[in-house]
Amino acid sequence: MGNIRPSFIKIRAIRLCEIYGDEFTDDFEHNKKLVEQYTDVSNKRLRNWIAGYVTRYRQRRVD
Fold first, then answer.
1. Are 24 and 53 in contact (CB under 8 A)?
2. Which residues of 4-38 are buried (b: 16+ CB within 10 A; e: fewer)?
3. Which of 2, 32, 50, 51 has a CA 20 to 30 Å removed from the CA of 16?
């Protein structure tokens, strides 16, 4: 069984991948810094949650 994430996390993460898709990688630490830079999320847990979903999203959608 996998983690179930709320839709607001998925929406933000997918939108970030559409806009800045080539800058995100499979590395969580790198994505975490980019999410902090490109969004106005002030909560660390929310930032990590979005960065984690972006990382999994990039790993699944190998171009």
1. no
2. eeeeeeeebbeebbeeeeeebeeeeeebbebbbeb
3. 2
Smallest Cα–Cα separation from 27: which of 2, 60, 52? 52
- For residue range 2-61, what is the model confidence (pLDDT) as tens digits? 778 889 999 999 999 999 988 999 999 999 999 999 999 889 999 999 999 999 999 887
Spell out the domains of the chain, with CATH numbers in brackets: 7-60 (1.10.60.20)
Q: Do 54 and 35 meet the contact criterion of CB atoms below 8 Å apart?
A: yes
Q: Which two tokens stand for residue 9?
A: 């996390």
